[in-house]
Design the sequence.
């Protein structure tokens, strides 16, 4: 009998949880490497191992019991990813691709080589370096930690005279932007690439709080740009390309993530194949699914823990208020500011769909949601990542 | 902190597997009582207990660790269901409702009291009883075991002179039928009822092999009939009402099931709220979700194990052949005739959608699928249930 492959994911956050949900349909059960038994995916998966994603022995032990290993986050040390490959493990995305999602300097340098659009940037080691850069682009500038940043962490806006943070950094121009966009594509090792429609993302304090799919009047070259990155960087699995749309309409790559991504949660109901199922197919080198939308608009609002972060007590009220709202609760211990779930509304009228998603989020978080279009801040926003 | 409720399901077949998948979105993890570690849901759920659904101690031990208990099948002895309630467990559907899905004599008598349409029938204990009934309705007649039948088991077509099977039976007229239909409704204890559109079901050897949602020209009274049964029998959770549409267009209730049902698998992608999520909401007495369709047509083909029942080796070919096909593999040990999965195609043109579902099933099962409309057989078909 042909046994289905054992797919393992390092990390057991909500991305692993939703990947497990999708894998079940394909006859699989995702094996996760969890840090603790309260991890979002550890609560629902049958095959849970406990270990530290920074420990090579833990990673090796886990990988040896998997046919393919993939990731819920970018925090596995690059040398460990490479060591797994050296030991014969199948790791997707592989270390040569993954480094561009782990190391902003490597990413910027590679995109420059490829002549792909991105903010003006420079590697810096001193305030003087930053000041020289700012003399060309103007203050303030954006300083980013080369490694380890996520959800607004590792990103600083520097004005003239501000101190440089004591970590390895790059500096980027502060992009005057019309809005932020994201393109998700999936690519399998044998080469097939499929992209979902471009989405608009709305960030607050560096965390994605809302996605609108598709983005209205999406620039025609955004999908080609994302596909090019997937191919040139030899990405396998889902690649999220976060983009700035400049005031003049030009695009600039903000961040890359090589895994299912917050900006793709709408695909669970809003696309024929979700980003989670597609990631499974892609890393197993199975044929990719149709990424076409299933509705005219899908708006996802993320549920960030508010002053009373306990969603469970408000779930019934949210279901009652909008029977067609799609609710996803991650089962995580509630804490203010933590990503605890998301809701997706679908329909033909964008204003209505957006307002339903926001209303659902307001009920579930117990926090008022913005009812106005947020104004472009002109400030680049860091990539989001599961908390 | 408000803890989410612990929902337990007795039985760990594919219905439990897909219920777990749906429960995850609501922040839950389905606890299942499995017979063995190879059970479909036991392969993917985090909280698996092992026990015998016919053992009262096993059931009590399981139920004591759940807030609400529901069922993957109808095979728990009725006296055990009642004993759980007597011990203070919350069981949904409750024993007073569930007996009508477990005992065909009780079901027929109750529907007769309610004056709801059903085939002519009689309780019989001898061949002479059957012969007297057949003198009124004509031979052959349909004999059904009062308890324990499923998937064509426990149903016999009797011609004059045939022996009566040695179990407690009822006899029913052989309905001349145009087609078979099914209506799924969900009902919560506090009374809310929601119905999905009527579907047409196609049976082969007593097993549902295909559902077409919605049924074309569905009779207007079918949904009301199913809702009436849900209310009058005090059903909680999902109720499947399998119907004959007679040659003259009249309806007759064939079977009842009080759980997610094969005829509702299309709702996973084809309705805003799937039968699995709705069952969870209903038995927890949470507000029900919108049951509106998401596509013009959804056709589901069941994957019955063929001569070479191993689906896993053909999965990649099926995904490749139709990237928009939705594939569900249950992870069960492959055996000829066993329900191993299902596929759903969605779209605007019924002929195309149906042919895609059948083509996908043909690739996955390795068996040719019917390309013509099956002709009505004039023979009633027994209810289907997970094998």
Sequence:
């Amino acid at each position: 009998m042909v046994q289905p492959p054992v797919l393992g994911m390092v990390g057991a956050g909500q991305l692993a949880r939703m990947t497990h949900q999708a894998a079940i349909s394909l006859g699989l059960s995702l094996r996760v490497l969890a840090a603790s038994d309260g991890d979002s995916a550890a609560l629902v998966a049958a095959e849970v191992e406990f270990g530290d994603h920074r420990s090579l022995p833990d990673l090796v032990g886990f990988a040896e019991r998997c046919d393919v290993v993939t990731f819920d986050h970018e925090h596995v040390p690059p040398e460990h990813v490479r060591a797994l490959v050296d030991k014969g493990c199948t790791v997707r995305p592989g270390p040569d691709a993954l480094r561009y999602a782990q190391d902003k300097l490597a990413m910027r340098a590679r995109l420059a080589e490829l002549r792909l659009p991105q903010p003006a940037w420079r590697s810096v080691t001193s305030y003087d370096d930053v000041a020289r850069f700012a003399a060309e682009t103007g203050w303030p500038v954006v300083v980013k930690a080369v490694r380890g940043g996520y959800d607004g962490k590792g990103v600083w806006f520097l004005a003239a005279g501000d101190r440089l943070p004591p970590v390895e950094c790059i500096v980027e121009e502060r992009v005057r932007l019309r809005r932020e966009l994201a393109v998700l594509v999936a690519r399998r090792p044998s080469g097939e690439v499929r992209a979902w429609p471009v989405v608009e993302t709305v960030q607050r304090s560096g965390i994605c709080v809302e996605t609108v799919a598709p983005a209205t009047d999406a620039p025609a070259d955004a999908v080609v740009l994302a596909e090019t990155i997937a191919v040139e960087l030899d990405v396998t699995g889902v690649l999220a390309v976060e983009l700035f749309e400049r005031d003049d309409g030009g695009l600039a790559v903000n961040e890359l993530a090589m895994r299912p991504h917050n900006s793709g949660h709408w695909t669970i109901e809003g696309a024929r194949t979700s980003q989670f199922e597609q990631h499974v197919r892609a890393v197993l080198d199975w044929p990719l699914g149709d990424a076409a939308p299933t509705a005219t608009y899908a708006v996802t609002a993320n549920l960030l823990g508010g002053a009373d972060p306990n969603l469970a007590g408000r779930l019934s009220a949210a279901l009652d208020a909008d029977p067609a709202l799609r609710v996803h609760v991650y089962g995580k211990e509630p804490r203010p500011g933590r990503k605890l779930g998301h809701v997706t509304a679908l329909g033909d009228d964008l204003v209505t769909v957006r307002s339903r998603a926001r209303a659902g989020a307001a009920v579930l978080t117990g926090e008022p949601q913005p009812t106005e279009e947020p104004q472009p801040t002109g400030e680049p926003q860091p990539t989001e990542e599961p908390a």
Q: What stands out?
A: Chain A touches chain B through 52 residues (CB under 8 Å). Confidence is low (pLDDT under 50) at residues 374-387 of chain A. The first helix of chain A runs from residue 14 to 25. Chain A has eleven helices and 17 strands.
